[in-house]
Amino acid sequence: MAENVEFTSNGDTAQGYLVTPASGSGPGVVVVQEWWGLDSGIKEMADRLGAAGFVTLAPDLYRGALAGHEEMDKAAALMQSLPPDRAARDMSGAVDFLAGHDAVTSDGLGVVGFCMGGMLSLILAAARPDRIKAVVPFYGFPQGDTEPDWAPMTAAVRGHMAENDDFFGPDAAHALEAKLQAMGKDVTFTVHPGTGHAFMGPHNALGTLDEELAAQIWPEVVAFLHEQLG
Length: 230
Known about the structure:
By secondary structure, this protein is of the alpha/beta class. The protein has a single domain, classed as Rossmann fold (3-Layer(aba) Sandwich), CATH 3.40.50. The protein contains 6 helices and 8 strands. It has helices spanning 40-51, 72-81, 84-99, 116-127, 170-182, 211-229, and strands at residues 2-9, 12-19, 28-32, 55-59, 109-114, 132-138, 156-164, 187-196. The chain is globular and about 40 Å long.
């Protein structure tokens, strides 16, 4: 079952897209949007996780704003104008909402993020080690000034990055992976050969969708989340 919900965000109210599996319960997973907003592609990913047995919540970090898949300038402007503190509060509110939901069977939660959401999923894991136990970032990670204090992060991380990516390059991905592993973190970033940014996006907005690879990766993602969360 899929529905739009409201949840508390540090005294404010945020919205999101909630999917409950057919069984009526399961481990909880937060899905973090790309720079387009809470669009059909992100809802489809939440639906897929729901079908795989997870109670899934995708918070609407843009608070209703959307960019069309041909509107890259608008998407970039939306991402750049997103207040980082509000995004952090809304993601944390989504974590608290899932953690307190009757349908969620796991103490620990997972996070899956794409592009901007891949970056934010790792920031959320560092901010909420009390709840986030598994992270799957796709072609996105914090760089430079956007990096959080990694010390508190306890989640297992299995990232999937693109080889040909002007936004989040493979060299930077490998460097961050090595840095986090040196800190004793359970982190693996796989750079998939021949891929472009957004290779999982069902909307194929950049013309980079790799359906064969996506079909291969998805069962691995589901298995990892169940392994970590139950």
